[in-house]
Amino acid sequence: MKRWILLASASISLAAGQITAGPPKLVAESGAREGGSWDPATGMLYVVSGDHVNRLTPSGKLESFRADAPGANGSLVDPQGRVLVCEAGGRRVTRTEKDGTLTILADNYHGKKLNSPNDLALDSKGRIYFTDPRYGSTDTMEIRDAAGKLVEGVYRIDAPGKVVRILAGQIGGPVERPNGILISPDDRYLYLADNYNNRAGGARKLWRFDLKKDGTVDSASRKLIFDWKTGRGPDGFKLDVEGRLYVAAGLNKASQFETVDEFKGGVYILSPEGKLLEFVPLPAKDETTNCAFGGKDLKTLFVTSGDQLWSIPVSTAGLISARP
Question: Rounded to whole angstroms, how far apart are CA atoms 136 and 150?
């Protein structure tokens, strides 16, 4: 039976005007490690956990959609109702078609296997952007730059199998370890979570880059939106219609390279300029990983945290890729 739990003292407003419209509620105890993508046509929310892609039905039941997506991470429902998934363990990006068949969108770059695809986004032209970091052992990484250094990149898919790198992630580069990614609705900006959380002094930042019409970025345009310093950095995030960012970040239990003194686990709501407007804590000891707007009016923020799925009512509608 589904349990609903109200989190007391759930929101701390740091600026005038409350953005959330109520405290978080626990929707599912497990089955929602990452992902988060709303399909307005069916009223279903897709999330991932382990090798499973799950979906929350309108009746509130979390059911299996796919059980063959190794290391599933980011998910996205496109405007055609197809489900795109970053399969970190399978080292590929896939799309489940409307008839249930599977299309491999990307599994290599210039013949070299991808690292561990993490998150993805769409622009208004239907081009797909994804991040390809490597958390854990680097022994099986194959993609290197001209100098032989390993690359954790950001890529654009123009068609199945047609993959273009738009940023090369490395220590000292414009991004160290790309994680969450988002394109502004006017295609003007590419937002990127830079989260090198297993290295002392590693990036824990949210960046904004200018996105060119050809789908490339100007690395010199990099603008810092927010810095989690020595805490757990940003993972997945979304935009509302006012341009505010809702970022899943933070941790409630310190790790070897991450502190919890300043940045607890939860949702950080930022202004377009990066001012912290509101923070919504979540209780999981594990990290808060991702979020997605949903509901009939897109005023429900669904959040994955420690494999749990939470919902938070908000006062402003969010933006989604799969518009009705």
Answer: 14
Q: Which of 263, 267, 256, 261 is nearest to 305 (CA)?
A: 267
Q: Is 172 exposed, middle or buried (0-12, 13-18, 19+ CB in 10 A)?
A: exposed
Q: What pTM, to 2 d.p., does this model score?
A: 0.94
- 318 forms beta bridges with 240
CA distance 140 to 115: 8
**Confidence (pLDDT) at 10:** 41
Q: What gap in Å lies between CA 132 and CA 110, rounded to an integer? A: 14
Can you point out the beta strands (E) in 185-321?
189-195, 204-211, 217-227, 234-239, 245-249, 266-270, 276-281, 288-294, 300-305, 308-313
For range 109-117, the mean pLDDT: 98
- The stretch 20-31 carries a mean pLDDT of 96
Residue with tokens 């047609």: 162
Domain assignment present for 131: yes
- Rounded to an integer, the average pLDDT of 258-286 is 94
pLDDT tens digit string along 145-168? 999 999 999 999 999 999 999 999
Instruction: Find the CATH number of the domain harbouring 137.
Output: 2.120.10.30
pLDDT of residue 11: 44
Q: Is residue 158 part of a domain?
A: yes
- What is the number of domains present in the chain? 1
Across all residues in the chain, what is the average pLDDT? 93
The whole-number pLDDT of residue 284 equals 82
Spatial distance between the Cα atoms of 322 and 212, rounded to a whole number of angstroms: 22
Q: 302: burial class by Cβ within 10 Å (0-12, 13-18, 19+)?
A: buried
CA dist., res. 121 & res. 236, Å (int) = 11
8 A C-beta contact, residue 295 and residue 60: no
- pLDDT band for position 300 (cuts 50, 70, 90): very high
d(CA 205, CA 307): 23
DSSP string, 275-295: -EEEEEE---SSPEEEEEEES
Boundaries of domain holding 91? 12-313
Q: Is 100 exposed, middle or buried (0-12, 13-18, 19+ CB in 10 A)?
A: exposed
